[in-house]
Amino acid sequence: MEYVRKLMDRVSVEGVKIELLNTAYGNGNTFLARLDPRTLFLWYLYFGIAPWFIHNEVLLLGMFLLLAVTTMISRVSPLIIVILCLGLLSQAGYLFIVSWLFGGGGETILPLLKLTMKLSVISMASITVFCSMDPEKLSDGLLRIGVPKQVSFGIAYGYRTLPSLVEEYHHIFLSFRLRGVAPRRHGLLYWRSIVYFLKIAVLSFYPLILSIAKRTRTTVEALEAKGFSYGYHSPEAKRIKLSYMKFTARDAVFLLGSGLYVVLLHVLAAQISI
Known about the structure:
Elements: H1 2-11, H2 13-25, H3 37-47, H4 57-73, H5 78-101, H6 109-131, H7 135-144, H8 149-179, H9 191-203, H10 205-225, H11 228-233, H12 235-241, H13 249-273
Protein name: Cobalt ABC transporter permease
Main location: membrane
Transmembrane segments: 41-67, 79-103, 115-133, 194-213, 252-270
């Protein structure tokens, strides 16, 4: 019961905001967080794309075990892990039900397991990489590999404002509840209450969108007053901003170790298939 209570505390709006902040800023002391962003992008380029073209069970299982270890090293929030597991289970369950309704049987389980394994590997690779970089480091890394300045800044700005937007949305939702009239009867399976809360959830987005527009305009004016456009278009300013980024022996060891592990997996998969 104590574990359930702690989990429910994290599911609250305040708990979600804290988990988002921890995900964005609380993993700076991990091994992966000390790597150069370009190293993480290069590593993710393989583990985020290659699983789609791999059909060998041994390879997928080995990659799954590696990504499970890197996810643990990244100190990913348990809330994100729970959301990931729920998404994968619902995806696999939905596909299995659809295949069963259209005449599929037990032979569809193995392909579904392969698909779930691929999605798990790609999802954990994404979580590992993007939870190991704070918004500033992620923005600088994208800027360094040639992503347009507006895109890299937009990603960093979205990371920073997301917790406050969640809290503001919660306040708007509560204000709608305070001024609205809840159904006097819940109805069968609480359908009246469910419809009521869904309606409020949709209506709460409109004031939030207006608030985001006003906040964005204020932010743009403040940035322009501080020379944002000049700094982002100046090669010298860009060089100074990204001067801290460099490859180290840690990056080489990480890439070399991952590459050797993948090669060993291919050798093992080839021997087992024989």
